[in-house]
Amino acid sequence: MSKKNDPQPWKLIRAEEGPDLRLFRVKYKWMVNPRNGRELKRLVLETPDWVNIIALTPEEKFVLVRQYRFGSDRVTLEIPGGVVDPGESHKEAAVRELQEETGYTAGEWEYLGSVEPNPAFLTNRCHHWLALNARLTHTPAPDEGEDLAVITLTAEEVRAAVHTGEIGHVLVLSALSRVMNLWNTLL
């Protein structure tokens, strides 16, 4: 429901391409603030959509990965995920990423929805998928820039890892909150 005093969309005056940073394309946008008419330059990062996957084994264990993250300069505990490639649906990307990163494939897939990773300057969405009856069927084949260790945890162990901060990636927490809410309604 929109109200009279709610913020309004800004008018784009012009846009200029910035450097192409492999995963991100920089775009500079000159916008007009509708409240005061002032022109402001803003930076936007155009990037493909992302996916992440909550994979549950037949024994109801979560399939997770430990990996080094360059931005935080630490090893993190996360769910598998990655970039949606050109011409690929987000479900196809989820199936591919789960197999590449973990070697697991799943018999049943359920879409959990999507979120905006950071709408202040990113153009993409992160799509959450639930993969049920996930089984180890392949050898993991991570990307060149990835060094992954695959582990499985119970729901209680995952909750503990969230509580202690061992799992702290906000997109992972978003997906986990959706599946935990779903899980609680099913139990």
Write structural notes for this entry.
The chain is elongated. The protein contains 3 helices and 12 strands. Helix content is 21%, strand content 40%. It is an alpha+beta fold. The strands form 3 sheets. Strands 4, 5, 6, 7, 9, 10 and 12 form a 7-stranded mixed β-sheet that branches. Strands 1-2-3 form a 3-stranded antiparallel β-sheet, with no helix packed on it. Strands 8-11 form a two-stranded antiparallel sheet. It has 2 domains: 11-46; 50-186, Nucleoside Triphosphate Pyrophosphohydrolase, CATH 3.90.79.10.
Q: Gist?
A:
By secondary structure, the protein is an alpha+beta fold. Helices cover 21% and strands 40% of the residues. It has 3 helices and 12 strands; from the N terminus they run βββββββαβββββαα.
